[in-house]
Structures
1.
Amino acid sequence: MSTTAKWPAAHRDPVVDRLHGHEVPDPYRWLEDADDPGCAAWLDGQAEAFARHARSWPDRDAWRARLAEAAGRGGAAVPVASPPVWRRGRRFFLRRAPDMQLPVLMTAGPDEPPRVLLDPLVLDGSGATTLGLWRPSPGGGLLAYQVMRHGDERPLLWVLDVADGRLVDGPLEPGRVTPVAWLPGDGAFCYVDTPGPGLERGRRLRLHRVGTDPDDDPVLFATDLPQLSVTIAPAGGRLMLSAAPGATSGNLLWLADAPDERARELRPVLVHDGTADGTRAVLKFAPDGRIFAVTDRSAPFGRLCAVDPADPRPEHWRTVIAEEPGAVLADCATLTDPATGEPRLVTVHARHGTSELRVHASDGTSLLDVPVPGHGSVTRLTAPPDGGPRAWFAYTDYTNPPAVHRLDVRDGSCVPEAPPVPEPRLPTPRDTARGETTREAPAARVPAARAKVRARPDVRRLTFASADGTPVAMHLIAPPDGHGPRPTLLTAYGGFGASARPAYSPAIAAWVEAGGNYAVASVRGGGEGGTAWHAAGSGRNKPNAVDDFTAAARALIDGGHTARDRLAIRGSSHSGFLVAAAVTREPDLYAAAVVSSAVTDMVRYHRFGIGRLWTEEFGTADDPEELAVLLGYSPYHRVRPGTAYPSVLLTCPQIDPRVDSMHTRKMAAALQHATASSRPVLLRCESGVGHGERSLSRWLGLQTDVLAFCAAHTGLRLR
């Protein structure tokens, strides 16, 4: 079969950049412009080729049904509940019933039943509008919320009256997703905007009085750095600003007197500067006015310090909870001892990916080790800002869907708390190749009478040696009925200091229930081992992350868990970059690979999307030494003609404001031109979505194709 019969040919242009003595070919630069007519025609041909191949995958419809059933139990991408956010006795929380396309925001007061406050499908029945960050006012009477449409990450900011759902303000157009910090009194809030297009214009802190013209909002503070956040103490009085030059760089931290509604400027005092040594800090305001700092300054695994407002410099911070090597300080919340009024500190530490929950006195004395439901992850720890003895959090592991739990420091009890189930509203569009809108019914709920009794998967933590001998951990989730060589899916994240925590995933559940293994490796570049583990896989050390991922694949094969013709790898965003780098390094190690929304052109990435924020994570081609490192692993530049690549599926939104989809287009064209095997290289480009949240139908469509593709090329068949 000719190449053109498999997929549309992409012409190669003689584009060569000469950088620091290197000649860097870029034959598919024309695919960087999605609006180019040639690019659009090429995408149309790719959509036809994808649809033709997808029709041949066995069990594709059955995979969708299996995923829909598993998604009804929840997961990070399809949450069913969130811990409550409290304001003066009123709680706000997200909830999604199994047959709902998007979560709804609900609220309940002390003397009223829970009700739906905000439903994205009422705002837009097409399902293309998603709810972003939201923040209730201190008194709970108003809600500031942000919505985004068709994956565009330039939100509209609105304010509604909680009592009757009436819009009272907006829209504000901050340019990018913004934090919202309300002033006491519910009449005004601080937010962050971008004064112009692009990242080079920096960020500004502005004050908005509800009901006034946003054009008149005063600028209280401005920075040329691309990241800025703001927090105000629960009772007012103090304000924290944090700014950073990049996604993983050290931050700058200021403390200031909180403004009132008439303020025209802010006079912050610099408290912490981690831009030189890469350290970070964040302040926590206790209900009684005390200030604590969570920082990795002089503590790679993190420590908690008491801050003197009269002299908040880091050299005067007093360590309250010392660093614990091997256990990363992941979160902290402040409660109140009802007997004494003293603060109680609740901390979450992560050890080997397993969360540990503890309660401490205000001086750091450990009072209680709280038993969590299993060897999994505690996330989204919340507590009422005005104090109290209770906190809420979400718990999940590889076999248990996320569930909300309530901790009470009075007796140390920790119990699940099930939120109410809202009624579903409207259906949403189904997936389409190029954005044509059609209607479909919501995903069907599995009747209770037909629910299966499932044997729990076998979850094991394995350790293997990377290329340089570094021990690396990996979780293997396997069916309970034996472990022989099975079709196996391997993934990892390994970037930006983010940890691959144990968490329930409908995709993992569906794959393992079908009889396959699923493996998650904690490679360098993540945060599992503190800041040193991140540094060992970032910047000029980024090749270590690829080494670790390759070693994980070999460990699965050598350990008899799978074989080369049964091993698939998958990843999205930074995880997708790892998969692309692994495929171009050792293609004969894998039967199939899925690369989603990934950075693949490491020479030009900083020119697109928000790539400028990632130069500390990857390095930059502007530096001669870093360019040499980048070219050593850049997936797009490592594609070699005449190589027998595995079956590859590349997926992306048509427009991705974070990771520009030019990466996926260029990578697909390069692999299609180069591969010497008969195995397919397919591109699935989807319109109407972005890098982040999507409706349940859109999520099911993508995950169905990912699992069906991997199953077809590893021999996994649904039971």
Note: Residues 424-451 have pLDDT under 50 and may be disordered.
2.
Amino acid sequence: MKSTVVALAALLSASALAGPVLAQAPAAFGAYKPRDDYAQQVVTAFYLPLRDGTKIAVSLHRPAVDGKPVDTPLPVIWHHTLDIEKAGVRVADATAATDRHTLSDLTRAGYVVAVVARRGNGASFGTRRGYEDFTEGFDAYEITEWLAAQPWSNGQIGMYGCSNTGEAVMHALIARPPHLKAAFAGCFAWDRYDGHTRGGIISQYGTGPVRTLEDDLKATPVQGDEDRVQLRQAAEEHQKSTNLLELMKSMPYRDSWSPLVMAKFWGEVSIGAYLDQVKASKVPLYIQGGWYDDFRTEGLIAQANLPDQARIVIGPWRHCLNDGFDLRAEQLRFFDHYLKGKTTGVETDAPIHYFTVGAPRGQEWRSARAWPRPDAANRLFLSAEALAPKAPAKSRASSVTVDYAPVCPPDAVKPNWGPFAQPCHPAKASFVYNGSRLAADTEMTGTPLVDLWISSTAPEQPIFAYLEDVAPDGTVTVVSEGRQRASLRKVVPATWETIGIPWRRSRIEDHQPLKTDEPVKVSFDMLAVSYVFKAGHRIRVAVSGADPRERARTEVSPAAALTLHTGGDTPSSVVLPFGTAR
């Protein structure tokens, strides 16, 4: 092993820079190109014992010259993730990174990077008590302060994560370690109940993976454990972790107490419940979202609640991806300002940058000071399979038998599983309402809302609504979707800013089972959009009683009859966000 490292170091030394060189970089969104400081990194992998004795696996990535780590104390960026990276000496560039979701290659920009496997994951010991309980928040505090105290650290600590690791970043903000100075968090749930069981419906997020012992034994071991003895011991401990799907099923309400974790877990792990602590941290926060990700509205709500410290970028991306955009450069622009004190322009930018799907080439990226709130002036009514500016005078009821086996056609875009799965038009057992053909290109930027009057023969009825773009040839593109369990329809004022979205408290006391054939109003949001419907296309709204991405569908026999009521005293409608953000 040692000879291999030395040989590789010699091979790389010719391309290594002599040391850090500060470069003047353009200060513009998406165009930050500073010169690399270092071409190499040295990676060590070891166990860090925490306060309770749990051994946590760390891979430490340090900038290097001629195969040796530099001695200059540097700022540190760390990732509280699921596995560490392999030790050794290697080229430090984005294409050589072993995981596209880590920032370990940022050693080239003069950072030390630590990749830390959360307890119960990878080579780390311990168990997962549910889905990121606050024990991990205390771990983040301890790890941050340990990183700040090391001789190769200058005490300026940043943190990065996306998806579950983005939520790990937010838990660190709640814990408020003194040396945490900047945080980048992508595709996370501001409120865990709303994010992972949106509308009270368990869907494709947060219910896995459930890893076997064999799965965990594929993790990267620390140095000195090449025979994987300690890795096996850690993996055996992991098998005692809480089953996440069973945990979610045990908590159908926001205030459910779960015997699996002996707590009202949704409140314990929701970032919104700790709003005052996050604000008090004053840590600058950069949020990543995507128009094809289920957490995009959650990110906008987080930014709206932290207007003085948070910014957000939303691109035409699936979960934690950034196809066609140099997100690493934007992350570096952020960290260079807050951890190195450079003037990069990020400090004067508008807090919201978003991509408008279908906008003219070169005009897709926009910026705004605030996300637009829904405007009731844009309300359209469901009327005889059409979208109309006025509600029909007479009531009308249409019924379908719920299809409990809905499927989506094959999705050629990959990844297309789990958190990357996309909604599709409900071809069976759905209600469809079409707008007129558009005379001109029409932009929607904002959050669509639906007010649906429904009844069902089942006491528990999920409702799904889809905003669709129908091309002249009949091709259907789902632009956005929303979902709501009708028995949890009660709307109350939220305890935080919801950017104009109706909020359901969804406590046990709010549960109102449906009565057969008795219409009730169900109000909820579809996910935020920025999209241009082209001239000649139609805007369409579809409604269904089941969705292919449900993880814990409740079926009744015989199948429920779902009725949608329109007009008269039951004026079902949608509010569509025509226009742009400001």
Note: The longest helix spans residues 135-148.
